[in-house]
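Rotation project, supervised by the postdoc (A.L.). Task for the rotation student: set up a whole-complex structure prediction and record inputs and outputs verbatim in this book. Inputs entered:
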Amino acid sequence: MDFKFSEEQEMLRRAVREFAEKEIAPHAAEWDEKDYCPVEVIKEMGELGFLGTIVPEEYGGTGMGYTARAVIIEEVSRYSAGLGIAVMTHSLVVAPILNYGTEEQKKKYLPKLATGEYIGGLASTEPSGGSDLVNQQTTAEFKDGKWVINGKKCFITNYDIADVTLLLTKTGVNEKGRPELTAFIVKKETPGFGIGHKEDKLGLRSSSTGDLNITDLKVGEEAVLGGRGEGQKIVLATIGEVGRSGMSAIGLGIIRGCLEEGLKFAKERELYGKPLTNLQAIQFMIAENRMYYEIGKLLTYRATTLKDEGVRCDVESSMAKLHNTEAAVKAAQRTIELMGGYGVINQYPVGRYLRDAMSTISAGGTSQIMEIVIGGDTIKNF
Amino acid sequence: MRIACLVKPVPDPEYYNRISIDPVRGILTRAGIPVVMNPTDRHALEEAIRIKEKMGGEVVIFSMAPDDAGGILKDGLAMGADEAYLLSDRAFAGADTLATSYTLAKAIEQFGPFDIILAGNESADGSTSQVPPQVGVWLSMPSLAGIIRMEYGESFRVWCDVEEGRVEYEVTPPVVFAVKRGINTPRYIGIKGIMAAKSKKVSIIRVGDISVDLDRIGLNGSPTRAGRIVVPDIGRKGETITGSPGEIAEGIIEGLRKAGVIKEGMI
Amino acid sequence: MRDHEDILVFTEFKDGHPLKVGLEILSKARGLADEMSGGLYAMVLTDRADGFDMLFKYGADRVYAGIDESFRYYTGAYFSRMAVSLVENIKPYAFIIGATAMGSMFAPEVAAYLKTGLAAHVIDYKIDHAGNLVQVVPSFGSRVAAEILTPHSRPQMSTVRPGTFELKENLRNGSIVHLDTSELDYIAPRVTPLGFEEVKPEGMPLEDAEVVVVGGGGIETREDWENLKELSRLLNGALGCTRPIVDKGWSDEAHMVGTSGKTIKPKVYIGIAVSGSSHHITGMKDSGLVIAINKDENAPIFDVADIRIVADYKEILPALLSMIKG
Ligand SMILES: Cc1cc2nc3c(=O)[nH]c(=O)nc-3n(C[C@H](O)[C@H](O)[C@H](O)COP(=O)(O)OP(=O)(O)OC[C@H]3O[C@@H](n4cnc5c(N)ncnc54)[C@H](O)[C@@H]3O)c2cc1C
Ligand SMILES: Cc1cc2nc3c(=O)[nH]c(=O)nc-3n(C[C@H](O)[C@H](O)[C@H](O)COP(=O)(O)OP(=O)(O)OC[C@H]3O[C@@H](n4cnc5c(N)ncnc54)[C@H](O)[C@@H]3O)c2cc1C
Ligand SMILES: Cc1cc2nc3c(=O)[nH]c(=O)nc-3n(C[C@H](O)[C@H](O)[C@H](O)COP(=O)(O)OP(=O)(O)OC[C@H]3O[C@@H](n4cnc5c(N)ncnc54)[C@H](O)[C@@H]3O)c2cc1C
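Outputs recorded:
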């Protein structure tokens, strides 16, 4: 087993950390307060190549892979998990185009997505329930040589800033009588692509999440990704491996934030004339946070290493996602306790980390859904 | 244009409040303080890369530091430098600015010639600002420091910050320039740079790899000797004033009055 | 050691006047010269034959003056040649130079030509048993002070930042020795000064003010910054800053206090939302009364403060302003 990051991955971490410390950390609280998604920062990250790690060089990316992507998401989420989810969601349209797109689609979208000229999103969740993904109410009908799409999506990250959205629809029923789902690549300016209401979220507020109202949106055959009826497979695989490993990296960033902020506070704060770190009970809390972080790191980067090697990793990604998002909540709670009264004062960022952590739980599939995936696999294969 | 850029790895300045002195051995403890590229040197490197981008050529980093500084030089390569030399040998240790500048100059000579030597105006730790002009002397090149602006073409125009203004100079290379932070905003390292750095080399240079006079390097070559190191006690036994903003403001004014800086009638 | 040891001080001139730092060094070095029973000499390179009286007033026994049009601005090749010749000629025990912009280019160059040691930014001098000059220098900001010796080479060279030593008059009945500048004709410098562009710092110079208000990285808005300006004006003082304020563009390096900025010793220093990094403390630690306002009770500035106020400046500042305005 090899637990070392490559020299390039280490350099990447230093580079992103420096960027995050200068361009993200000083503004994260303000973005949260104002419920503002800093598109300009996402664009800057694009220029630095931070949005194109999973895109091969031939399509304008760097081909550094999924571990590199997770490093970026972790470092960004250390200071702003909200921006973290905006960045992570971007790849939910990149990966499927790369894996299922035609040569033409790849050439058309990937170079612009890799550099952040286009921002991406994925819309599957509907008011009728995200867990029940198959039960899509959004429909696409083929009429006069065009697909006509109608429906409503909700909780869509980057719904308003995404130039390109992967839209999941129902195009009929198959031979077995099951819904036939098809995914479309849709551009923001297409008539009928209605940007709806914005959610006022508890956390992850540096990302925008909201509704898409799709009315008589018309696209040609060239917008279909991977062929008619392939939508379910594409979206589940994308969310399962790319989305969940990404969400796990967000959780990891939050945990590190809690660990570092708690440690800093405990070292500086004096109680009974000594630093807080002298109290054993405080050391236990710090130890717990450290453990969450180390476990989370192993889980996340194992999943992404498998992904980089082309090995299936949906279960590993689900475990990483489940552990890290839940651990982030616990780490934030512990850290608030560690800080005493200061923990709940908004001058300190840990309260925000708790809100962010809570908000990661259902994004990319709820904890129960993760358990179903992990449990099912364990019973079948372990 | 061949440009040599001097880069010094230093303990991260963000942590200097944590530096303490081991009372028994009388040495500085820097444990746990990460080493970073000297902040001003990033501006020097940025300027070097800009000159290269405009005029063509090559940027070569020179650094005298222990082996583990290689990562920092790799970052410099990722920023856009082409090559790096890390001068690392026990024989170089203990150098003052004269020996440091001599060693750097000898390496620059060996792997030269260079048209421009760019350096930071000061390091974060030693902060003497002495190395760049001294490198100039060893290389028989003129030097200018405190540079806040540069224009390049056939000749160079540079503006040096001085008390109450700026002096403008016209310069014909080869020359040594030490730049201030204000000269530019260094670029962030992007992934393209990191990938490109993969195929660029950090060469470690030992004492045998360059032709130096052994009496001019390291501690032997240093006319200065460090004596005792002390942590000066600059602490004050202050009083804390509390209360409403109004009461605190009164306390401040009371202090100003006692210090004799508030004349009657001022308030 | 010889029976007497002389000290040479380079005193920089501008428009026919010595810069204050040169006089500060003379004031300090007078005592050292007396201790060594030696002479205190000033070296001047200037384009005008004025202003030498001031050097005698602050203790110089002799002035070595090079007067030439080409000394109007600093040109390393000329200045170093003159200094190297003089040093080789009079062989001083120590050679001290003000760490101005010019001195910071000049001193290292001369030291390298002479292959002698140079101690940077000395804050104190002593003479040890062996007769060496002990030069105390700060490092890591002001976190640490180190003693630097140059035991085997002469002269023992060092630089001193403006504002480090007190001015002390000690009138001498000195003489002026003119330096021969004819050899400069054989030098063809590749660096040519084209001119000087004055950048007048806004407000009162920090060094001259009795009260200095310093605003730090915690100052949130431009409006608050303007309020600090108002406060400094009302107190007949100057407004200084730390690095983050320079980075924001609200002030400039001429107003920055610390390692890369000014060393100040006002009667009263008021630090507002300043953390007290060692790089800043270097420049203000010798102030008279130090008042610090910071919302973080653990801010290191409080370690060097006489009056500590743990509070949000946004609450204190309006109260203070309205009280002063009456
Ligand atoms: C910040 C944020 C960003 C998001 N971004 C996107 C996005 O970009 N694109 C997108 O398509 N969606 C997005 N979502 C939606 C997200 O994918 C859904 O919230 C998630 O799939 C859950 O769906 P739901 O909210 O409808 O909850 P429901 O599916 O209604 O679930 C309600 C509860 O029932 C439980 N439950 C459901 N099924 C089972 C079961 N079989 N067994 C046991 N318990 C079960 C769940 O665990 C949960 O506790 C985002 C959500 C959030 C919070
Ligand atoms: C406490 C302390 C006090 C000291 N005081 C003195 C003193 O008074 N006199 C003295 O001669 N020495 C002194 N030294 C030693 C001096 O710091 C070292 O010689 C050091 O190697 C170079 O000097 P600097 O850090 O001051 O560099 P500066 O001259 O301030 O650096 C300016 C620029 O030169 C370049 N540069 C400097 N060092 C290197 C390097 N190693 N590799 C590549 N580029 C470099 C960089 O571009 C840097 O930005 C002191 C050291 C310490 C720790
Ligand atoms: C080689 C080198 C040279 C340097 N030279 C200098 C120099 O000459 N001068 C200099 O200043 N710096 C210098 N620096 C930078 C220095 O290291 C510090 O980064 C800088 O001094 C920090 O400035 P600050 O304390 O004002 O800001 P910060 O570190 O940002 O601190 C802000 C402070 O304000 C407090 N605060 C925030 N909001 C409020 C509020 N509402 N009310 C009350 N308090 C509040 C915070 O608690 C904090 O303590 C140098 C650095 C290097 C590497």
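Student's summary: Chain A touches chain C at residues 268-269, 347 (CB under 8 Å).
Supervisor addendum: Residues 231-268 of chain A form the longest helix (38 residues).
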